[in-house]
# Entry
Amino acid sequence: MVAITGSSSYNPIITINTTTTINEKLTPATFPQWRAQFEALLIGYDLIDFVTSKHQCLAIDGTKSATSKAVNFYWIRQDKLILHAILVSISTTITSFLTSCKTSHEAWAALTCLYKGKYRTRTMQLKEDLTLSTRSSRSVIEFLQAMKIIAYELAIIDHPISDDDLILYILNGLGPEFRDIAAPIRAKETSLKFEEIHDLLVGHENYIRRMENQLASNLITTVNYSHWKGGISSNDRSFSNMGHRHNKQAIHPKATPSSIQMNLQQIVQPPHKEKIKNGLLTLLHRTR
# Structure
């Protein structure tokens, strides 16, 4: 909460309650997030010039006029309130570094000097994370969210990456399943926004899953139909028995597409992989 506690002939005095406006105290690990919140707050209330030293304290003129006194008094009061807000929003382990600071600008500069040197190491780490990140077993949505979080943190510490670079990192980490859609995206002459690439990749993932389920459904229907007709040759029966030795529930009339995918993965293992594949091709050929 921010309250106007008083006023002078110059400007009202603004008090900042950081417990309700800053959601976490400053620690050595949270400076970028803390600074982003505090800057936004100061800009919103037109107080940022105090910490950047653009708005400096004006000395009382030689005549000690009421106006110059009011301006000077206003600046001191407002700056001390900003300094207080900074001090109460940081952890006690950091407060000791600011005990000698007399103005909000001194405190702000001290914190920036203390932590900005660590930006380079953090920036390199985050960029390495972007380079090495892969989708692996995650869904596309989870992968994209993780990449966006890294890009957001880079922006906070003044090292933003362009949409083109972010999309390149994403395409590199998707894996071979997305090769068909990655190629045309790379070839586009115009840049895509993150939101656009998000919709394209999620849609492509849904298409891949539908095709996998359809293939599994067609396969189980074909195999079960061949069993029911009794048209399996001796070679086909040896193939079927071999599958049952690996998994007794491999092919069942009540199996689902997802279960047939899992069972086929269990069955189709070396050294019988080629023989089973040939048996499947024979069954599929007979139903045509």
Remarks:
- The beta strands are 2-7, 12-16.
- Residues 51 and 172 are 42 Å apart (CA to CA).
- DSSP finds 14 helices and two strands in the chain.
- The two ends are 74 Å apart (CA to CA).
